[in-house]
Amino acid sequence: MPELPEVETYRRYFNQTALGQTVADILVEDQRQLTTDYDMLHRELQGATLVKTDRIGKHFLVTLSTGKVLVLHFGMTGDLAYYRNEEDTPRFARIVFRFTNGFRLAFIDSRKFGRVGLAESIAAYRQEKNLGPDALDISLMQLQTSLQKRKAPIKALLLDQKILAGIGNWIADEVLYQAQIHPAKPAHHLSLTELERLHQAILYVMETAIAQEANYGSFPKSFLIHARGWNDTQLTTATERQVCPKHQKPLLLTKVGGRTTYFCPICQTL
Length: 270
Fold this sequence. Notes:
Structural class: alpha+beta
Strand content: 15-25%
Oligomer: single chain
Radius of gyration: 20 Å
Order of helices and strands: HEHEEEEEEEHHHHHHEE
């Protein structure tokens, strides 16, 4: 599933290709993937220029010259492709934006869980979805204020998009591993030092993933994602994925907030 690093990579790709283009037409294979009525979407997009991009967590937002905002959510298998000729249309191109310069942008989605639509503004969309600060933008003070009175496990709260937008399951495990915090620790028991480590780890994990264009195999060997298995074909044994990258001791697998959770009982004590 595309997470914040993937969506930020898509945003940068969009900026290098489609940004500044004017929409001539939009082709939609299945209107059930639209969150806005097709006629309205077509009317608002036709002749509009794509002037600015933003991202809130996993939500990709494109401001139009009309002031409206095009919203793309990539679901489980979403991607983008910029190309010119119709014969180069990629497989699973569900929605295609055709530009006045002759090029096209495909919204690719093999499983059709992605969604495309319009919002009145970025602020209105954030309020509608009840999204907290983006994980790349949140300050230490914001993080401390959001967590210091909450009794829920820190792992569950990191996944709450109302508190922090953009952290998915593997990222939460990675952040807590890098910060050396047990995933089940109640948030209100975190010390200031732990909160500082947590904030630094959020930025470190996100910035590393974006720098590597979300190519998990290129992440530092000190990352937990190699142990939990970013690609099972890379693992030589069934147990290789279950050892701590730091000292090769077994990881523990549990559920926190209903989500599968990997952690090291030595590095992350409760």
